[in-house]
Each structure stands twice: as structure tokens, then as C-alpha cells.
Amino acid sequence: MDISLEVLQSDITRLEVDAVVNAANSSLYGGGGVDGAIHRAAGPELLEECRNIRRNSLPEGLPTGEAVLTSGYNLKARYVIHTVGPVWQGGSAEEEQLLRNAYLNCLKIAREHDAIESIAFPGISTGVYGYPLCEAVEIVSELLKEYRTSYSSPSRISICCYSSMDYQAYLASGIFTI
């Protein structure tokens, strides 16, 4: 089965997919941008589950490039996969590899859960973390092209863009359908 790659302009909290990816901060306690929107839409149970994860297994917080799974609670998505993308520091602090790891670790979690056949990513690190959009799009596009030659799950991978500028950048990569 071939993996479908799509780009859409929407609010990630309203998508009907099995899992949405949260561009989280390392605390997992919510914040601004996508992180805050997902926490608000999912409801207080998400914060409580994140607190339990921190207490029980991640007392120092979620490391950059890693990912963790929670329930989706009040979201249409059954699951949230939280990942911490790199803060842009000019490209000299392993940002590219950390960004790749963030996407790959989310996809690994999705592959390991049979119930996750569709996943939606925001543009990880391209907001307040300052990762240059065009560079991030190139990395993600190449990563997903490589990914689908080795794996068949999840069967639908979406990049969900909030802004028209982000949407156009991903669409211009040529690998996504609409």
C-alpha cells in the first residue's frame, strides 16, 4: 500500500485523523501556537496526562527530537503525538538532524500503533522556534519521500498549515497532494 502525502490549510485541532502531532515544548504543559491550541481543544485531561508522563518518566522534560503519545480527549483525533522541535540557532546546533528526528520519532510511534493509520503534522519549529520555512519544507519533503520507500504505515500523512504562506511552501515542494 502506498502512503498518501497531503498538504492542507486548516486548524489541526479540527482534523478527523487518528493522530495529530503537537509541536510541543519540553515541559509538555502547553504553551503558545499549535501547542496551546491543541491543549485548549483537547481539554484539561490532556494536561493531566502530560503531568503524569513528566512525573513518571520524563522529569527533565521531553528532549528535542523525541516524541511521546497521549490520548486526544476532546479532539476529533484519538491520539496526540507530542514532539519537541529544535530552536533555530543559525544551523550550527544540529537543528536539521533534530528536526528530522522529531518527524521520524512521531512516525515511529504511529507505526507501532495499529490504530494510527492517518497522522497530521504541523510545521514543526517553523513558528516561534524560528526554523526557516523553506529549509524545513525541503527537509520534511525529502524525509517523507525516503520514508514511504521503506514503510507503508501510516497510510495517510498530512501536513496541516495554518497560514497560506506555509501551505503554498509545502505545496510547491511537489510531493504533496491537496
TrEMBL record:
SUPFAM superfamilies assigned to the protein according to its UniProt record, in alphabetical order: Macro domain-like
Sequence ranges assigned to domain Macro in this UniProt record: 1-178
UniProt feature coiled coil, ranges: none
CDD domains linked to this entry: Macro_OAADPr_deacetylase
Cleavable signal peptide: none
Protein name in the entry: Macro domain, possibly ADP-ribose binding module
Organism: Salinispira pacifica
